[in-house]
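Hey,
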Amino acid sequence: MLVTVLTVAFNAEKTIARTMVSVLNQTYKEIEYIVIDGASKDKTVEVAKSYQAAFENTPGRSLTIISEPDKGMYDGLNKGARMAHGVLVGQINADDWYEPDAVETMVELYNKEKYDAAWGSIRIKKKSGDMIKHAHIGKLWSTSGWCHPGMFSRKETLLYFPYALETMYDDFDYITAVHQAGKKIVTIDKVISNFAFGDGGQSTKKSLKEVKRRVGVTYGIYKKYGMSKGYWFYRWAYELVKYVAG
């Protein structure tokens, strides 16, 4: 079964090599790899192209690189999903990287569960030390066990529920749409990918103003899909706990 892996990139010359090598060295053999660059101003495309021969000389691998202006990472993922030929599509950003058996693990899970979307746990690399975000689906539909860098979906699912291109939480919007449509979603508590935790990102800012903004955006997703108004209180509690924890 062919699996497509997508990497969106923009000015990622310092990190994309690690991402690409992690795809090249997967234990699973049938992988179509598509790098979607948003017209980077640095040497991202040059670095990506330097791996063309390695992919061509590895049985079961292919590499396609496109570079053109886009509307951000989720626009790039939508574009990549339309190009994909695989039954399953994984998504790994240009500053993250897979565990060696990531694709094999998610294929085995698909063969067992026939899921529409699934994700595994991720390792978050921080200056203070590594931590694992464990993949799970709790009684409340939440971002707490949601691990986008560990997600794989059926191609048809991605095409039917394209990223909305509305907010930085388009990934959670996508999986919420899939959930509310009654599609099959499963998780596996096994580390699939590694996420490099940077400083200053929009999802990590600690001001109360930013907390309020995030609550508004995430609750807007629940509201968009007709979910309980109680999620407004839940989002405030969730964000305030993160704020206090620092």
